[in-house]
Design a protein that fits this description.
- This protein has 65 residues and is mostly helical.
- It is built from 2 helices and no strands.
- The radius of gyration is 15 Å and the shape is elongated.
- The two termini are 19 Å apart.
Length: 65
């Protein structure tokens, strides 16, 4: 769960790192191996993106403003 902008920025950096990892893996693994290897990472990206969306769609509190 993301509670502040610092955590938001970290989540975004984490997502980018996973994307870069998968981009590289696509070049070095066979299609079948890549599909098996990538599945948990894609799920992790999806979960982190959902956390970002939830945080960004919440109304900021007075303490955040």
């Amino acid at each position: 769960m993301i509670d502040n902008d610092t955590q938001l920025h970290q989540a975004q950096a984490d997502i980018q790192k996973l994307w870069r990892f998968l981009e590289s893996a696509r070049q070095t693994h066979s299609s079948l191996d890549y599909e098996r290897m990538a599945a948990p990472y894609l799920l992790q990206i999806q979960e982190r993106q959902q956390e970002v969306l939830i945080y960004l769609s919440a109304n900021p509190t007075a303490a955040d403003a």
